[in-house]
Each structure stands twice: as C-alpha cells, then as structure tokens.
Amino acid sequence: MKTEWTLKEMSNWTRIDSEVKIPAIQRGLVWKPHQVELLWDSILRQFPIGAFTLSHLHTEGTDIYNLIDGQQRWNAVALGYGTFSHEDCILWFDLKPDDKVWGSSKTTRKYIIRATTKAHPWGYKANDDCTTLNTAQKRAALQEFGVNTGNEYEGTISLTETYPIESGLPIPLCWMIVAGEEHGEDKDGFAKCIMDKIEENKTSRKFKLKQVDEINDGLIVKYNEAFKRLSHYKVPTINILQETIENESEDKGEAGALSDIEILFNRIGTGGTPITQSELMYSAVKAYWPELTEENDRLATLYMPPHTLISLAFQLVLSTTGKGLERAPSVAKIRKLAGDDGIRKAINELYCTDGKGSIMSHILVTVDHWLTNYDKIPKVLRTTIARKSPEVYLLLMIFAKWKEEGQIDPILKEEALFRATAYYLHWMVGDKFGVANSIYKAVANNPLNEWRTIIKRVLLVSCVKGTIIPLLSPEAFRSLFIIEGDKNWRPDGNGRGSMPWWPLWETVSYNEEMLLYAQREYMCKRFPNYDPARQDLWEDKNRPWDFDHIIPQDWIHRRRSWRQAYTDYCKAWKDNNGNMAAIPFWVNRAKSNEANWEEYKENPIGLLADDDISDFDELFNAMLNSDAKQAKCFAEKTFTRMCKIYKEVYALLEPVDFRVGEITFIEKGGIKNRNERMTAIRDILVKEGFTAGIYYLYDNIEYPQNDIDDWTREWMSCGCITENNYYAAFTMVLYQDGSIGDQIEIGLRRLPQNAERSGKVAEGQLQKLRRYETYELYEDNNSWWHICKEISINTDNDIIINELKELAKFASKELQ
Hints:
Blueprint: E1 4-6, H1 7-11, E2 20-21, H2 33-44, E3 52-59, E4 62-69, H3 71-80, E5 89-94, H4 99-105, E6 113-117, H5 135-145, E7 170-172, H6 173-183, H7 187-204, H8 217-221, H9 224-228, E8 234-241, H10 242-248, H11 260-268, H12 277-288, H13 293-303, H14 306-318, H15 331-337, H16 341-351, H17 359-372, H18 379-388, H19 390-405, H20 415-428, H21 432-443, H22 451-464, H23 474-478, H24 502-510, H25 512-518, H26 520-526, E9 545-549, H27 553-557, H28 567-574, E10 580-584, H29 585-591, H30 598-602, H31 616-619, H32 628-653, H33 671-687, E11 692-698, E12 701-704, E13 715-721, E14 727-733, E15 743-749, H34 763-769, E16 776-777, E17 785-792, H35 797-814
Parallel strand pairs: 2-4, 3-8
Antiparallel strand pairs: 1-8, 3-4, 5-6, 5-7, 9-10, 11-12, 11-13, 13-14, 14-15, 15-17, 16-17
Helix pairs in contact: 2-3, 5-29, 6-7, 12-14, 13-14, 14-16, 14-19, 17-19, 18-19, 19-20, 19-21, 21-22, 25-32, 33-35
Protein name: DUF262 domain-containing protein
Pfam families: GmrSD_N (PF03235)
Organism: Phocaeicola faecium
C-alpha cells in the first residue's frame, strides 16, 4: 500500500485515470476561506497538515484508493494547483504584502495566500479569520476593477477580472507552485517562468493582475526556497482495506439506525467540519443513485442546496393522497429504498433528461413561476421557502407535478391561489407540515375550481385550533389603535399586547421577508441578478442590501447613557418594518446616520416612502428622542408606512383569507352561519332600541367583535347590555372541525370584558332569578352566568330575540 503522496499527485486525484477516487459519499467544498489560506501557509512552512484516510483495493496488479477522510484539505490543495475551475474560487500569492497589510492584520502567517470567491470577488482581509471587507473597501475595489459602483449586482463579476484588493502584488498561487516544481533548483529559471506567465497573461487575460509592472525578478526569487521544497512535501495516509469498508456498509441495524459505515464516517470526520444528517443523506443517495447526481446538482444551483432538492424529490415520489405528505427521508430509508425497483424507477423518471429537460426541471420551473410571479418577486423569497419551509415547497411541487401529468387544468388560472397558499403557510402558520398535509389530502381528487374554498376551509379549522395567524383587512389593520403623544404610550399598552390580533401585528412589524415582498419592484430592479440559491451566497454578509433605519437608530440612542424623555417611546418603533427599508449596502453605509433620504426621494413608490419624505430634513433631527412633536410624528409615519407594507402583503394573501367570501363548511353550519345569525340578531335588537353587541372570548376576557372582525374564535356571544350592568345573551361555540355546536346557551350573565367573575348576586335578587324555572341558577362566582339554559341550534331567531328582550327588561327593572 502507498502511504505517502506528493502535493502534485494529490492535485491529480480528479483525473479519470487517477488511482485515488473521490467517492460519491463525500461532500463538496465546505471549508471557509481562512481554512484554505492557512493550510497553504502551513504547507509552505513545511508544517504537517495531518494524515489522510484512504481505502485500498488491490485488483489484478492495480492499486485503487478511495478518499475517506481529508476531502476538505484535498480541495484546498487542488485549488492551489488550479485544478478546479476559476468560477468559484482563486488562490493568490502576495509577492509584496505592504506595511499596511502586516501592520494591521495581526496575522500568524509567514506567507500571504489570499482567496477571492464568487461571493467576495474583492477578497478578504489578511488576518487569520479572513474578515470580510467593509462597505467602503468594497466600493473602492469595484472602482479599481472598473465595475459600475452604482449597482454591481446588475452585472456578473468574473473572478478572472478581480484580485484581492487588500494586497501588494498578488499573482495566482498556481503559477508559483508550477514554477517551483519545474525550476526549483534554478532561481533564474524560477523567476523567468513567472515573468513569462505574466507576459502571456497580457494576451490571454486569464487573470486580472494588480500593478503588474512593479513585479521583478528580485521579488519572485525571494520565495524560491519555499516553493522549491513543495516537490518534496509529502502527506501521509492511513489505509483501510476496501473489504473492511464493504463489510461495514451492510445495514445491520434497526430501521432508522446508522449503519456501521456511517458510524465510521462520523468518527473519522470529527476533527474536521462536522457532516450534517442532510449531507449524509445526500451522500447515501449519491452512493445508491449515482445517476441522479449530475442533474440534481445542476438544478440545485438554480434553486436550493442539493441535499434539500434531493430530499424533496424523494418526498414527492413517496407522498400519496391516502397517507399524506412524506417527511424528509433518513439515511436508513434511503438505503432501504435502494432495493425497491418501483421507487428507483419513479425517482429516475423524475431526473431523466431528454431534449426537453427532465420532469424535475419542469416542476421546478413551474414552482419558480408561482413563487416569483414570473420574476416579479425577489428570488430570495423563493429560496427562503425552499430552505426554511420545505414542506410548503413540497406542496407546490406536488401541484406542479399534477399539472405536468394533466391531473389539473393545464391552462392554470389559480396561480395567485397557489402563491397565496405558499406564502401564508410560510409566514403565518406554526405547524407548516400539518397544515400543508391537510391541504394536500383535502384538494386531491377535487376539481381545481373548488380548491379555493377547500383551502380556506382547512385554514379556518387550523385557525380554530390556534396553529395559524388570521388576517385582517387593511382597513381593520389600520384601525387597531390611534397613536398618542404621551411619552408612556406604547403599541402593546392598555392590554393590546394580549389581544388576538397582536401576533399578526408582531409578524408584520418585524418579518423582514414581508418588507422585501412589499418592496418587490424595487428589489427586482436594483438586484436583478441576485439569487441566493447557492449555499455559499446565502449568508447575510453576502447579500447586496442592508436593512436601513429610515430615521437613523443613532438618533434614538444618541448619548446612550442619557435617557431622553421620548427615548423609550421612539425605541418601540425603531426596528419596526415601517422604519426599515432594504437598500443597497453601499448606499446605506454612505447614508450612515445623516439626514440623507435621497434614495427614498428617487424611489418613492418602490420603497413605499412617506408622502412627506422630501420634508424629512425639516420634520426630524438628531434630537428626535427629546422632542414630543418629532417623536409622535415619527411614530405616526412609521405606522403609516407599516400599513402600506401590510396592504401589499394582504393583496398577496387575500385569496386564502378565510374570513371573506362564500364558504360552506358542513351541512349543519359553521363560521358563516354564526356570522350571519349573530349579526342579524344584533341588528334587530339595536333597531328596537337595545344596547346590543357581539363579543368573543380570548384569554379569559371578552372583546367586541367589531374591533377585529374575526369570527374564528371558539366562544362568541351576542345580546343586550342593560344600564344596571347585566348581559342578556346567547353563545355559539365553534369546534375545531369548523362546525358550530348542536346547542346554544342563552341566559342572563355578567358583563363582557370582565376578567374577574365577581359581583355575586344578592340573596334578594337570587329569589327573583329563581322565577325562571326553566333556567339553571348559578349562585357562586365561578360562572359567567347567573341563569342559563341550552336550546337547539335550530331555534328560530325570533324566539331567541324575544327571550333576550324579556331577560334584558327583567334585569333592568327587577335586579336593581
């Protein structure tokens, strides 16, 4: 067995004729730039980089090896040799790191190797953590590269057109490596090799070089010794017999348990970047279904991480209308399914490509159209659903597959419904899988023109169970409260924080995705090429925008140790979406905490800017938190913009607003029945001169229904309030299946909005109440009712009205 390998041998492991193979179970590149840079510094200093683990198989005089552990280090070595393409990462060697680099980097390095990546084409700082550059440095880099600094995300920046901006004289590391291996013993030849490559590059323009005319033989020769030694640098390997791997690969455990080979991979990989279960699952898929890898990886670059996509593909195939949606498969299930010919055929048919593309590609294009409304909604929202709410994405994939197979009308007229369903589940639903599963089973085998009602019905039932947040009309949302100028006033004050509409308020206030949606036209115009489907472009630091405080947060926290009169008042609105906007990071950083609203003045519609944005210079200043007039104006304008945001969001979600439209739940009634019945009875009582209202119970307190227009509450009452504080009422309960009960409670009770059931009826009054022999009498303080009885749900409204009127008159006259 071979136990040592040179770096050059390792760099060739990607060749078809290489004796070392990268097995399917291995992952892609997951190391961070600082890990790659420091590894090469270690190699150039002749530090050991640890042993690699290979499996060995000797057949017919040929030694074959599989890389078991060390792939990330191997990736870093291959990057240095330029084995990989230059699309994703280039490693550079700085021939002349200047005093600024050494003086400010606080690095432990001896050699400055720099990485530029697709996410950071300008490179990173030269410290050991590869800190990202600040906005000013990025802007300076773009100017130096000749890229339009107005919006670099409107175009594509090739890594061959950039270099690490914080460097002296960087050249590709692979040039230095090749020169060292070919001319290591000849210093002049070493220098000439580099100078020749620089000259050739002037014609080929393969790499963009910084201040190339300053490079000379002397700068190059000083590194000859380090690169000469690379040809003698060897990496040790630990070899495991392939027979051992194959024996341990057998599934000996119970369903769901890790096999021995997976335990082996987890144990030998503990020193590196931990492998996740989803990555391990994808490795298993690649091992058992290698034919899927190429198409899955190709599609994944367009939409989501590859392990997420392959998981959804298996869930798509395994979901049935009888059993419901399938959950993400485990490694054990992937192994088990590998022997199922029917599943193998189904999954292969999804990925099989022809002249028109694979079925999976058609499904993903359809889902993409629904979620982005044909590129009118930022792609970042589509990718977020795929990553954070895969069950929602799966539901749309099933609908798209049905469309592909002709099970639903190919001339689709319900795209808005599908889009609303997806975003509602993603934003407003706690049990996403449960609700998505209920929708899937409910709409199956029903004509498309009935789906809207069916989906609303499912959402209503989920709302009654308390798993989702109901919507309000934009008008009702705006009327939730009136902002007051009292410095102690807060949005959640006076019990508002415990109201049933508060979760909706909180979500709209701080959900940044809703803000991005409301700004969708601006986002698509400003950042048309930005698509975070790839894992390495997902982190917040790599997005092209910042979330800007329209009124600078420093104005509210100015002199933090000095709490001003309206500091807390303004703080309640500081981070509200109404005071936030997604604008280009270079614009935001230039804006800083100055009175600068030019971006809003230039894009008033796209940024939902205030009508008075041009007058903000006069309306606000840095002493905002000490001025009552300014503080109240800030709160009002923040609330106004928030209402604009909600109006945009509601327009998206309106197709699934189960509070509106014609909905029949079951034969004996439901929310629509309760709405119509209580409204009719209340209106008649008011017309006849009674003080009548409708109330719902929430957190042991009753609230007026007209404050929220919400009919999904479990308990609701309707009746007359007397001048001496009695309530003649009837109640209707809504069960979790969306139906109302068979019985109605009716009687005389305590006032609504009374959390404590106090006010015991005096003995004399009890005697009078006992006259109502058909009612049950409640003498203690533990009931809402004084007297109550049950009547059939089928009782005529006229009978209920007359009963309430009689009870109200009795209470007014007799119970003084």
